[in-house]
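Why do we bother with holo predictions? Because pocket geometry can differ from the apo form. Keep that in mind while you read this record for magnesium ion.
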Amino acid sequence: MYRIVLLAGDGIGPEVVREARRVLEACATRHDLELEFVDELIGGISIDTHGTPLRDEVVALCRESRAVLLGAVGGPAWDDLAVDVRPEKGLLEIRKRLGLFANLRPASVIPALVEASTLRPEVVRGIDLLVVRELTGGLYFGEPKGRSEVGGVRRAVNSMVYDEDEVARISRVAFQQARLRRGHVTHVHKANVLEVSQLWMEVVEEVAKDYPDVELAHQLVDSCAMLLVKDPRRFDVIVTSNLFGDILSDEAAQIAGSLGMLPSASLASGGFGLYEPVHGSAPDIAGQDRANPLAAVLSVAMLLETSLECAAAAAQLREAVSRVLADGHRTADLLLEGEQREVVGCRAMGDLVLQKLAGQ
Ligand code: IPM
Ligand code: MG
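The structure, written out:
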């Protein structure tokens, strides 16, 4: 029996997690996986209910579970709060406290959606890359940090800090992922300016010796940002620090078509993971049945594969999603400009995936 914690969060989080759960239940039944679901709060809704974006009880519950499925956090209602008490703080804290150091963000183009990218089809067709982002260190967590005022002048500081063990463990994840893919790792850095990047460069090279079958390249982060729009197909696995990974994974998401399609996994050692769609809480469309649940559904595929070790179920689910799209069904975010198609709502998209699964 596996326990799965559902942290639906804010905005469109609850509606996409609802569909993702239905799909996960269907996969579990098919593959004889016994699951127990527990709902808990994170982000703005937790602030409103309990006065804090993440309670200790929730962290403890997650520790006693196999995986966490998260929707999204944040929204305009909490925008004026200080960084330390905002909904996003709940997300950063859960990553840190559960040791979720490896963030996997695949960006690939589903053939039926090639036209949905803002780049030309010949640039986009065949994109299949994976950003491996370090998630519990670097500029997001480094000390010293904070604000001060010196002689009436406001000042703020954040620190980019990594030790070699943190770099080595994320590098290993990247090399292992590359072995399952096309055998290529690009380490993204700013070593012409930052000492931290020079350390990364050394450590990634050292770890690479254990993976002689994987090819390693180094790329400056600014030119990587450029190459991602010029020739995205050259990338297989990208490994990088927390901040660079945050930025580049959004860029990769956009070139691949819709943010509404992209899943992610945040992994600790030992198979435990938190799975969440890359898109945010989209408060402007929340509660209107207009959200695209497919990123959450594809996050379920990653959960099945990694935390429940059921690759067959994951493959079936991805196939079901591809077929629904190949049949021409689209949520609003996937429509091209001027395209005349019937728009499918969040719930109906969940139904379509369930139907395809049942028919497989
Ligand atoms: C992400 C998000 C978060 C981050 C925010 C919401 C704190 O942008 O998951 O990429 O910066 O990590
Ligand atoms: Mg981000």
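The chain has twelve helices and twelve strands.
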